[in-house]
Amino acid sequence: MRGRGRTASGGSTAVSARGSLPAAFDRYERLGRLDPAGAWSRFNADFNWAAPLTQAVPAIGRPGSVDAVATADGHLLSGLWVLPRQYHRVPWLALRCPPPVPGSRTTTTTAGRTDDALFVVATRALTVEGVTGGEAGRPLARLANWYVPLGLTTSATGAAVRIKERTFVRVAVTAMAMGAVRRLVDGITAEAADQADAADRGSQVSRSERVDRERESALAALLDRTRADLRYELGRVVPVADGGRGGRARTVGAAVERAGTVTRAVFAHVRETAVASGRQYGGSSPASLVSASLPLLQHTAFLCGPGPARDRLLSGDGGPS
Question: Which top-rank group of organisms is this from (predicted)?
């Protein structure tokens, strides 16, 4: 990756995808478990993962300037953008949104500050309504309150990720998502253990509660197996940035996608149980952990191949499961 970026701990370091993928997985999994929202925010400050995507820029001087109004879990994007001529050949575009003027509603939440933001939008979401002037006219497209989840938002000021470094991004984001979901699962299984202790002391435990405990234990075991499988594949692959190609590179890509799919499935099962419990998980409420984990799960859906999870992002839904 070009340039320099900050590490998650705040230090400065050369940005490179040439490091050990297993070490990157371990580092980002730990960060995702400790602070999902902070991990995602810092990752976006360090790395512009949208750099390989085709960009669209605001239509300067046109009526209806671009606007990105912050919501609880994303932004509502409105305005007019200039598209590249061959925009229809790509499924995604990165729509640039410059820093707002003071006092406006336009804001981003990348790294907790207002930034030159990039919002990734499905090309089919755009409505072309004209062209720029001159012989070399380019398409103009408008959005009106199009929802872009935090998982598809990044900062243009981070170190640009190159196409050959995408494996690093996929591993890092999947690791953060797995760490965040593991924290939720651990909180639920700890609560189940407390209920089992109460049962040993003579309290009644219903059949449904026993079934729930068994299911949650099975989910924890599934997450552990998936993590072990992914770590094994990461230890065998040579990163593309170091010349890795062929079967092993494809194998690690499949393993990362499988891990993301399993993580989203586990999250879909545990999120309601976690929120309903009302228990504090390591000083954080379940509801806040679920909310903080969402951008990571959304981005794993963006990284995966065609399917229901990605279709929801294409539709502007943003759901992670």
Answer: Bacteria
